[in-house]
Amino acid sequence: MHGTVLDTSNEPIAEVVVTLLRGEKFIEATTTDEAGEFNFRSLPDGKYEIDASAGGFHHARYLVILGHQTGHWNRSIHIKLAVGVDQCEGTIEVAEKSPARQKD
Fold first, then answer.
1. How many CA atoms lie within 13 A of 68 on its CB side?
2. What is the pLDDT of residues 22-80, one digit of tens each?
3. Is residue 102 situated within a structural domain?
4. At 72, which CATH number?
5. Which of 26, 95, 19, 94 is nearest to 60 (CA)?
6. pTM for the full model?
7. How many Cβ atoms from other residues are within 10 Å of residue 5's Cβ?
8. What 3-state class would DSSP assign to 72?
9. Would residue 78 count as lying in a domain?
10. Region for residue 34 given its phi and psi (left: phi exceeds 0; alpha: psi -120 to 50; beta: otherwise)
11. What percent of the residues of the chain are helix, what percent strand, and what percent coil, each to the nearest 5?
């Protein structure tokens, strides 16, 4: 699973701590790069919580459900953080994404 953390103006946010949990179990943590991107490799299907926090922004925590029906697909999400100190919560379901189709 990979993704991007953006502000409410769709600008990337660097240095966001993104933590992945399964239930209450810590799986992995990473920090976004200059383009606001993060990456968690080789995750099996299932339910995870993804937590994103950065100074000066609302804290965000989402339930992420990874699932697919075929072997090759893209697990990508976008997280938006708003300026402030409150917490955001929600659910994101990540399903199969078809490869880009070429136009004739």
1. 14
2. 988 999 999 999 999 999 988 888 899 999 999 889 889 998 888 765 444 456 788 88
3. no
4. 2.60.40.1120
5. 19
6. 0.72
7. 26
8. coil
9. yes
10. alpha
11. 0, 55, 45
